[in-house]
Amino acid sequence: MRAVQFCLAATAFVATTLCFPALAAPQRVVSTFLCTDEYVFRLVPRAHIAALSYEAVDRKPVVSTIADKALGMPVIRPSTETVLRLKPDLVVMYAGTNPRLHLSLSHLGVPVLDVPWANSLADVRTVTKMLGDKLGARDRAAALLAEMDAKIAAARAGAPRPPVRTILYEPQGYATVAGVTEEVMQLAGLVNAVPQGKLTRAGQLPVEAVIAAAPELLILGGEERSGSARAYAVLHHPAFKALAGRTHMEFTQLTPLLCPGPWSLDSAETLVRLGRAARTR
Asked: Does residue 118 come out as left (phi exceeding 0), alpha (psi in the -120 to 50 range) or beta?
């Protein structure tokens, strides 16, 4: 699953952050980015969330796992003015995003918490525990991790063996798999079958390369009825008919993998099901 690469943060940053003592629970929290929305919504009582980013409830397309649950909550398109108007006692941002806003808030003395990107499930644990400390939500953070561990165990127990050769193919032909997404695939009994050297610099895989790889499982990332959007046209390419009878193909929404977090394991059950369906073929 393609990640916002500019959000990557150094491991040293995480270690440094964890050295600080836990803060008193903030009372007016603003989140400025989809992937921090996911955490803030789950860790902070609703009454103490001053606003989430508009992406949390966006439906064109749906990119959030909380799009339905967060309906009715205040959302913003983050700017210095909109954030200040909410009088937050903590603004949660992803490290490296919206640098102008970050600089403005820092100059104005508004507390900002930078959240590093998680490149692995180990990073997810570290980030979740750190946010539990910083948001006064250690119990909620522990519960999230316990749920994640239960889903990991279930995925391992149900995963097909040997691993199913899989290509995860997204709109515009993106097929780069790394980090948390690749770990979840492995837990679910899938192995990335993208042929080496065939990806473009942007991480796209030509349809011809997909056909030549002939994976056991081709996951088409999105809704089958995706309308006329050009980005989705490649997922309906008629050349995929050549894989009929030897590749299990299925459209699937894998929204939990867009932002790495404990909720990413919500996709494991779906991946296990698809792998087992491919193996029975």
From this structure: beta
pTM attached to this predicted model: 0.87
- What the block records as the tokens of 83 is 């954030």
Q: For residues 184 and 165, what is the distance between their CA atoms, to the nearest angstrom? A: 14
Which are the contacts of 103, defined by CB distance < 8 A and separation ≥ 6? none
What's the token pair of residue 156? 């391992």
Which is nearest to 87 in space by CA: 105, 99, 70, 101? 105
Contact by Cβ (8 Å): 71, 54: no
* pLDDT tens digits, 59-112: 888 899 999 999 999 999 999 999 999 999 999 999 999 999 999 999 999 999
- Whole-angstrom CA distances from 93 to 19, 68, 126 are 19, 22, 17
Cα angle for residues 39, 42, 45 (degrees, 5° grid) = 120
Give the Cα separation of 178 and 199 in Å (integer). Answer: 13
The encoded tokens of residue 237 equal 């390419």
The total number of residues shown for the chain amounts to 281
Other Cβ atoms within 10 Å of 22 Cβ, number: 13
CB 246 within 8 Å of CB 213: no
